[in-house]
Specification:
- With 132 residues, the protein is α+β, with helices and mostly antiparallel strands.
- The chain has a domain of 75 residues: RRM (RNA recognition motif) domain (Alpha-Beta Plaits).
- It is built from 2 helices and 6 strands, in the order E-H-E-E-H-E-E-E.
- It has a 4-stranded antiparallel sheet with strand order 2-3-1-6, covered by helices on one side. The chain has a two-stranded antiparallel sheet with strand order 4-5.
- A hairpin with a 2-residue loop joins strand 4 and strand 5.
- The chain starts with 6 loop residues before the first strand and ends in a 51-residue tail after the last strand.
- 10% of the residues are buried.
Length: 132
Amino acid sequence: MSNDNRITIYVGNAPYNTSEQELRDLFAPRAIKRVSIIMNPDTNKPKGFSFVEFATAAEADSAVKAFDGTEFGGRTLKIAVARERPSSSGGGNQRSGGKRAGGGKRSEQPREKSKKRGGARRDDDYSRVWKD
């Protein structure tokens, strides 16, 4: 939420083909500052939810009360005041607190070197398997 009393609401379970103008029309005559339809970056198609920013908290609260649970385009909308995103402490995997998942700590002792080297096997290595 910003300092100038604007507030954003979450609009969930919207039809995938909902346009920005349809959302503006739905919430009219309330003063809407911005509509953000969330897109899937891989398919470039809507994910079925969006965020609508209102000029005042009173207008946003009015929209939540008026439209939460109503049907729109054959689907029941879930409308709520949007929560702020938690601040990120940097990049990385969020589930593991930014550390690489798996692996664990390496042993202090050096590994014993294998006599075999990695890579493709030579034809003579298959002679044991393909004997007639």
